[in-house]
Design goal:
The complex is a heterodimer of chains A (321) and B (141). Chain A is an alpha/beta fold and 321 residues long. Chain A folds into three domains: 5-99 and 151-182, NADH:ubiquinone oxidoreductase-like, 20kDa subunit (Rossmann fold, 3-Layer(aba) Sandwich); 106-147, no CATH class; 198-312, no CATH class. Chain A is 30% helix and 14% strand. In chain A, the strands form three sheets. Chain A has a five-stranded parallel β-sheet, with helices on both faces. Chain A has a two-stranded antiparallel sheet with strand order 4-8. Chain B has 141 residues and is of the alpha/beta class. Chain B is built from four helices and four strands, in the order E-H-E-H-E-H-E-H. Chain B has helices spanning 18-27, 49-57, 78-95, 113-130, and strands at residues 9-14, 36-41, 62-67, 103-107. In chain B, strands 2-1-3-4 form a four-stranded parallel β-sheet, with helices on both faces. In chain B, helix 1 (18-27) links the parallel strand 1 (9-14) and strand 2. Chain B is globular, with a radius of gyration of 15 Å. The chains are: A alpha/beta (321), B alpha/beta (141). The interface between A and B is medium-sized, with 34 and 27 residues.
């Protein structure tokens, strides 16, 4: 019997998700044995035209990581959707927008100006910016169009399943691949992990007091964290209460608070707003001036509350830019 | 905003104080601009920041959250939660490029019909100056 055909593709991402596939270690041999990889730009040499030449739905499954930021990524996402039976959004960026999605606090013009003009290490006296088409004597050079707004994968194409995480943990990847090969998949649109908040499985949960009450919001660098104690009880912001679990508490076990890469649980529409609500509940201060001071002490609230979820939030981007 | 045009304000009023205050303004036949669309909630702390954001996406020009005076909450401490949540919501609002003058938190008791009228009138005048909610007209996706 012919092996099922599989594609891995990357859009606006760091490459960590590709690394996560490699992190399957010996298990990757089982994967390679069971499937035939047709496209994997980071690891193997295939051409887009080979994919274009395939019949529709010829690929069993495409794993697409990264957010959608340029026209090339949009084109490939749409192409792979057409050629695949299943599309899995792989990792936080394609699932929720991820770190590249934080660029939604700016627009294309601001980003280009910063990257190609204003940074101290850039010398660009003529103000040359990337163009989609450049004429040179040898012919035409082209670059993809850079969009103003970063989108998640499911804002671009229909997505069947989501593998959350930055990057997805190897055990979840292996579970997902096994489920696909055996045809034991959950309901379409599912996030392939548990639907419970991280706090439920957090090893520090038992140290959490019955009623959390903090007087001050602190940064992790400002305190000596007791590895046995709940971060929120110490006044350090941890997104555990608003984040989906199943990640294996990798950050918590490394003495770092949760930053929310698994995204919200199923019913939550806007993770940042949800966490903001829960944070407001545990601040134990009633004086008006004092509350405003504490609100001011939250540095970069978008980067904190919406670190991985800005493009998938209700507003999706900063308004008026 | 045109001369006679009124802004649209979504008002989340707590059942025990502010909503009763609005009723008092009504039965006392006090005059105020017809700009507020009231939504009665059991407590001002029921107002999730998502409600506020959704109201703006739906085209509201302003959002008013009103509850009992601090110390007078029917549920002991609900309005303190509201106050903290509001402070943080304002911060998010600024960062997302929305005008914080479009959201307002007020304490209005059941006996303060006049205060309710003053708050609505003042908020309406302020919103008239700021103009229409830009989200409605801008393509932002």
């Amino acid at each position: 019997m012919a092996k099922p055909l599989v594609a891995f593709y990357w859009c606006a991402s760091c490459g960590g998700c590709e690394e996560a596939v490699i992190d399957l270690a010996e298990d990757i041999l089982k994967v390679v044995e069971a499937v035939d990889i047709k496209l994997w730009p980071v690891a193997m040499d295939f051409k887009y035209k080979d994919i274009e030449a395939m019949e529709d739905s010829a690929l069993a499954v495409s794993f697409i990581n990264g957010a959608i930021r340029t026209s090339e990524q949009e084109y490939m996402a749409k192409l792979l959707r057409k050629k695949s039976g299943l599309v899995v959004a792989f990792g936080a960026c394609s699932h929720l927008g991820g770190i590249p999605g934080l660029a939604n606090v700016a627009n294309k013009k601001e980003i280009f100006e910063t990257a190609y003009k204003l940074t101290h290490t850039t010398v660009n006296p003529k103000g040359v910016y990337p163009q989609t088409v450049t004429e040179i004597p040898q012919g035409k050079l082209t670059l993809p169009e850079f969009y103003d707004t970063v989108k998640t994968l499911d804002q671009t194409i229909e997505v069947d399943y989501y593998l959350p995480g930055c990057a997805p943990p190897p055990d979840l990847i292996m579970n997902a691949i096994t489920a696909i090969l055996e045809g034991k998949l959950p309901e379409k649109g599912s996030v392939l992990t548990v639907d419970k908040a991280l706090c439920e499985t957090c090893p520090l949960n038992k140290s959490k007091p019955d009623k959390l009450a903090i007087k001050e919001i602190k940064r992790i660098s400002e305190v000596i964290h007791d590895p046995e104690k709940c971060f929120l009880a110490e006044g350090i912001i941890c997104l555990g209460p608003a984040t989906r679990g199943g990640c294996g508490e990798r950050c918590i076990n490394a003495n770092m608070p949760c930053r929310g890469c698994f995204g919200p649980t199923k019913e939550v529409k806007d993770m940042g707003a949800k966490f903001l609500s829960s944070l407001a509940s545990i601040i134990d201060v009633d004086d008006e001036k004092e509350i405003e001071r504490i609100a001011e002490s939250v540095l970069g609230p978008i980067g904190l509350f919406y670190m991985y979820t800005l493009p998938s939030s209700i507003l999706r981007r900063k308004q008026g830019v | 905003m045109k001369e006679n045009e009124l802004p649209r304000i979504i008002g989340f009023l707590c059942k025990w104080c502010s909503s009763a205050g609005a009723d008092l303004a009504g039965v006392s036949r006090l005059k105020m601009p017809a700009s507020l669309i009231p939504i009665r909630v059991m407590c001002s702390s029921r107002v999730d920041p998502v409600f506020v954001l959704k109201a703006f996406l739906g085209g509201a020009d302003g959002v008013l959250v009103a509850g009992c005076h601090p110390g007078d909450c029917h549920y002991q401490s609900g309005n303190y939660y509201t106050r903290r949540r509001f402070a943080l919501t304002k911060k998010i609002f600024e960062e997302l490029g929305l005008d914080t003058n479009r959201i307002r938190l007020s304490w209005i008791s059941a006996s303060e019909g006049h205060k309710f009228v003053n708050v609505v009138t003042e908020f309406t005048e302020n919103l008239k100056k700021i103009g229409k909610n830009p989200i409605e007209t801008e393509v932002f996706l």
